[in-house]
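Lab notebook, bench 4. We co-purified these components, and the gel suggests they stay together. Before we commit to crystallization screens, I want a quick structural picture of the whole thing.
Request: model the full complex, all chains together.
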Amino acid sequence: MAYFEWADDMVIDNGPIDDDHRKLVQQVNALHSATSQGRGQDMVAHLLASVIADTQEHLRREEHLMEVAKFPDLERHKQGHVQFVEKLHDLQQKHQSGSITVASQLSTLLRDWLSLHIRRGDKGLQRFLQLQRFLQQQQQRRPAVK
Ligand SMILES: [Fe+2]
Ligand SMILES: [Fe+2]
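Here is the predicted assembly.
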């Protein structure tokens, strides 16, 4: 069993947002299995850099989607994104200053944050988009007033 299992309740768009999330989940699992084999320290610098780049790209994509959809919780959601990227940068600095516990801290941070980020924050976007689609369909079905 993987350290962080992908689950159906994490599906948001059956598209690019899910692809980003899945890639991040894979990175968590790769880091965790390296750590449990004593290789975490070897890969953490490279993995941190790639997780930070992938996360920033993902968050930009998500925020753009939210802006286009006029998602009402956008500002609060963005703040959560900023705080998470700050935590990743903190870990990167810790690693650069010689800490040897960063690999396991990073696995835990990524798993816990991603799980909450997807299941609470991003699910709100999914429900909002569903509601928008439903309202549009209702409007299209309504007979034109003459
Ligand atoms: Fe996301
Ligand atoms: Fe998000």
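The domain at 16-141 is CATH 1.20.120.50 (Four Helix Bundle (Hemerythrin (Met), subunit A)). Worth comparing against the SEC data before the next meeting. The mean pLDDT is 93.
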